[in-house]
Amino acid sequence: MNNNQLMTRAADNIRILAASMVERAKSGHPGGAMGGADFVNVLFSEFLIFDPDAPTWSGRDRFFMDPGHMSPMLYAQLALLGRYSMEELQQFRQWGSPTPGHPEVDVLRGVENTSGPLGQGHTFAVGAAIAAKFLAHRLGWVMSQTIYAYISDGGIQEEISQGAGRIAGHLGLDNLIMYYDANNIQLSTTVEEVDSEDVAAKYKAWGWHVIEIDGCCPEAIRKALCEAKATVGQPTLIIGKTIMGRGAVGPNGENYENRVNTHGQPLSAAGASIEATIKNLGGDPEAPFQIFPDVQELYAARLQELRELAKARKQEEKTWREENPDRAGKLDRWFAGEAPAVDWKSIEQKPNQATRAASATVLSALAEQVENMIVASADLSNSDKTDGFLKKTRALTRGDFGGAFLQPGVAELTMACLCIGMALHGGVIAACGTFFVFSDYMKPAIRMAALMELPVKFVWSHDAFRVGEDGPTHEPVEQEAQIRLMEKLQNHHGADSVRVLRPSDVEETTIAWRMAMENTHTPTALILSRQNINDLPAPEGKSRKEAAEAATRGGYIVLRDENPEVVLIANGSEVSTLVEGAALLRKDGIRLQIVAVPSEGLFRRQSQEYQDEVLPRGIRRFGLTAGLPVTLQGLVGDNGAIWGLNSFGFSAPYKVLDEKLGFTPDHVYKEVKTLLSK
User: Fold this and answer.
1) Cα 77 to Cα 40: distance, rounded to the nearest angstrom
2) Which H or E element spans position 583?
3) Which has more confidence, 678 or 68?
4) CB atoms within 10 A of CB 562
5) Distance between CA atoms of 357 and 387, rounded to whole angstroms?
6) What is the pLDDT of residues 328-344, one digit of tens each?
7) Which of 418, 426, 584, 600 is most buried as measured by Cβ atoms within 10 A of its Cβ?
């Protein structure tokens, strides 16, 4: 145990570095970082368990940051551990630096998650805690790590905290410890101006163990963490009363603590003096980017202690591996993040079913063959058909993580972030389902999964206005265009940020799921129908199952006449409508080619020769989509026509809607004839 004087000096070192980083960048948030330094210093110097020489060790404790604007605190803390150099801290917020304005996941440096939108970071931690419990049931004590989360006033206020807090308490996640940095200051107001709730009472009502402390006192922090570690059957919330801009002073030594204006700008811009503040905290204003010698010794000792712990742990794991070769093999495979072995050929689909039903068939097989997969549904498993998975396992419950299905209740954004947290933890394949129209609730999480390049599977059923009698509130129209924009957005490795797949029939659904499971580097979206879809025709000599393999190229020819006059393009259930319309057109002697494009992004990554074969140049194109016409604009181009939906849907049986809205073979016939007559 370190003496409190040294601990405060180390925290002051973090405060100096954090404030100096923001000052040098002329941009950032120093106040919260200065207030929270005491907690992170105690956590990292005395409690957090990791291997300094193997940062990706699967058994490590994990620290999830929610308020990304407090990144200077995290970078400064990690610099004390040797993960960042002083030169890198001085490049805060600059082009190409490893110290961006908000932390971006970099496990090698100790950054476990990308954080920015408040509320998501601590929800990732809840997901990681679920993953750890799930894996501990299957692998044993090697997954006995503690998950730590750090949240601020803003994160507590974000609505997602309701879902995260409720679910963590309901599941009794005693491997989760969350620190609430309650400094009472927000970016533009004090907390009292916007919030009068009793946070402690709220979390207690959710089943959390709650501890309230002076967040500036090392001894109080230490005692709270020990109590939290000893708590069984409940997650713990430590509410630390901290001081915004702790140690900040003006040119003449006047107090600049607890001021709103130190939250989101350099101290000098807030009227304080960076030089006087550094001096007040025991630093050298002429050389602020340094680690105090006694603090350096403190962390050198901690790193040595951690190396000794890691050495002992590795010996224990070696013995465990010898005694449990099967479990050891699973541990290695699961954390390698490779696509699981699945007998895809053995999956038999019933013909002419809804693609959500086909998805259920696949999920049933995955439940039996993929031991490290968790599927969740926002109270819709029997409707989005993720219950195909649930029927082969059981729900995760307090004290029993032997199942593999998460029931988060009606909480789409929370559910998505929990799955992201599972993926960040590693060792788990996560998927979640709901209705496509409710993907709107999930967009902020999808974006974060895409930015972090996490292979979460998003499963959305009820893909179009054919939800019918439920009416326009439940009928997606613009949603496909929105998610396909994410497929056009490139991540920092140059890949499509999200793989979007809308299969055209049951066999294509199997292929879509296979692509999703084999996509280990980005999120995948599966968009599925509520209503039955007629299976597409197969070329002579091939079964439909064999023909559907072509979907792996993103787009392919379903049916082709020699020297076609027009190319008909669609995905999902609209492809079968094109097939029926084509029969009418052929009676008039019109030669055509029908193309299914479940993923435009994947199709555009094929060779130009292949693209030209599927979409021949110089030939008229007609697109059919149950979404906005712009969804197919990139495929149809200007020398063609698209029939889509330009309005919200309507309440009526889906067959009536097909007729009224022009999604029938007869209407396809009329539209193509009109196109060709121009």
Assistant:
1) 7
2) helix 574-587
3) 68
4) 6
5) 10
6) 999 999 999 999 999 99
7) 418
Residue 661: both structure tokens together = 């809205």
Q: Which position among 23, 275, 317, 412 bears the catalytic label?
A: 412
Q: What is residue 632's three-state secondary structure?
A: helix
Residue 334 neighbours by CB under 8 Å, 6+ apart: 135, 372, 426, 427, 428
Give the pLDDT confidence of 239-262 residue by residue, as tens digits: 999 999 999 999 999 999 999 999
Quick one: CA torsion of 420, 138, 460, 489, rounded to 10 degrees? 30
User: 3-class SS at 144?
Assistant: coil
Which 8-state DSSP code applies to residue 344?
G
Q: What does the pLDDT read at residue 208?
A: 99
CB-based contact 413:444 (threshold 8 Å): yes
- β-partners of residue 122 are none
According to DSSP, the residues that pair with 239 across neighbouring strands are 180, 212
Q: What is the pLDDT of residue 639?
A: 86
Chain length of the chain: 678
Mean pLDDT over the full length of the chain: 98
d(CA 317, CA 227): 27
Per-residue pLDDT at 108 = 98
Chain centroid to CA 511: 23
Active site residue 412: yes
Partnered with residue 434 across adjacent β-strands are 460
Q: What single DSSP character describes residue 605?
A: T
The reported pLDDT for the residue numbered 1 is 76
The model scores a pTM over 0.85: yes
Compute the distance between CA of residue 627 and CA of residue 137 in angstroms, rounded to an integer: 44
Average pLDDT over residues 566-594: 98
Structure tokens at 618: 């110089």
**Pick from 525, 337, 531, 370: nearest CA to 433:** 525
Lookup: tokens for 189: 């107001």
How crowded is residue 651: how many other Cβ atoms within 10 Å of its Cβ?
A: 15
- 148-185 burial, b for 16+ CB within 10 Å, e for fewer? bbbbbbbbbbbebbebbbbbbbebbbbbbbbbbbbbbb
CA 212 from chain centre, in angstroms, equals 31
